[in-house]
Each structure stands twice: as structure tokens, then as C-alpha cells.
Amino acid sequence: MKSRLAASIALSALVIVGATGCAGITPQATTIDYSASDGANVPKSGPIEVRNAFVVVDESGTLGNLVAGLVNTTSDAQTIHISIGDGPSQSVRIAGQKSVSLGGDDAKPMTFENLDTKAGATIDVYFQSGDAEGIKYAIPVLDGTLPYYSKLVPTPQPSPTTKPVAPAVEVTPTPSETPVG
């Protein structure tokens, strides 16, 4: 009788351990950090955090609008420098403990020219703030196919054209002189 009881207890323990053992060695999906949106959260590198960053490109894929949330986690004003590819860097100054939205509905677009990308790809964007070295991070590229992104597609700025300018002073012919005589 004692052996049957011991066997039952051992079997029960084996079933419990076997049924719950997978959870002990398998990572739980709820503990994995990810961006639950179309953009990417850039790993922290410096005092300014970059959240939900993505680039909306025009049809040709050469002009892009960077959309992101920038958060200054310090009490002092900080500057972040952002560049894509070999193009010039653009800077944004953010007051202490404040956040700024880039390229969204109510924000001025931060456009980058001479890109070579298409929607669905990722593009390397370099972010540098404070004294930190900075980080290059792959940001998703989207287009205006979805209605809520159609307003974020950048449009090329019109190039300055020269128009003929009318003279400021009208030239009047001088009367011809008549000989006195």
C-alpha cells in the first residue's frame, strides 16, 4: 500500500513538472520589448530619446519626411542632430523635460533629400544628442498608401524661378532737336 501511494505521489509530481516545465525555460512573449506601432523606438544613446520613428517617402523614394517623437529626459535644454546617409545633418533643440513631435500632422516636416529607398524598406538614420557618441538605427520607410499617412508625404519645394522684371522707371524718348536757323 505504501508503495502505491509513493508511486502515485511520484507520478503526480512528474506530471506537474512536465506540464509546467515549458514555461520555466521558454521566454514569455510579454517580456520581449518591441515597438507596437509602425515606427521604431531607437535604443537610448544620449539625453534625448527617439520614439516611434519612421520615414514617409514620396513616390520616387528620393524625398523623405522623418516622423518621430523626441523626449528630453534631462532638466537642461539639449540638442539632437539627425542625418540620413551622406546628407547634411539637421538639428532640433528641446527644452528640459519637454517633448517635440517631428513631421506629424501638427508639426513642421523634417525632410531629407536625395534618398534612394522605397516603402517597405528600412533606412539607416543617425541620431546624436548630448555628449553621447550617437547611434545609427534602421528606421522603417512608409509611403502615403494608407490614408492617415497620405498627409505626411513630403512635397518638393518649388525651385526659385526668375521672371522678367519690368523696369522701375519708364524710359521716355527725348524730343529730337530741331536746328535753329
What does this structure look like?
With 181 residues, this protein is an alpha+beta fold. It is elongated, with a radius of gyration of 32 Å. Helices cover 15% and strands 30% of the residues. It contains 2 helices and 8 strands; from the N terminus they run H-E-E-E-E-E-E-E-E-H.
SSE layout and pairings?
Elements: H1 2-25, E1 48-57, E2 64-72, E3 78-84, E4 90-94, E5 99-102, E6 110-112, E7 122-129, E8 135-142, H2 147-150
Parallel strand pairs: 1-8
Antiparallel strand pairs: 1-2, 2-5, 2-6, 3-4, 3-7, 7-8
Compact overview of the structure:
The protein is α+β, with helices and mostly antiparallel strands and 181 residues long.
* Rg measurement, Å: 32 Å
Mean pLDDT: 84
- Based on CA inertia axes, which overall geometry fits? elongated
Please report the number of helical segments.
2
The end-to-end distance, rounded to whole angstroms, is 157 Å
* β-strand amount: 25-35%
Helices and strands, in order, run as HEEEEEEEEH
Quickly list its features.
15% helix, alpha+beta, eight-stranded mixed beta sheet, 8 strands
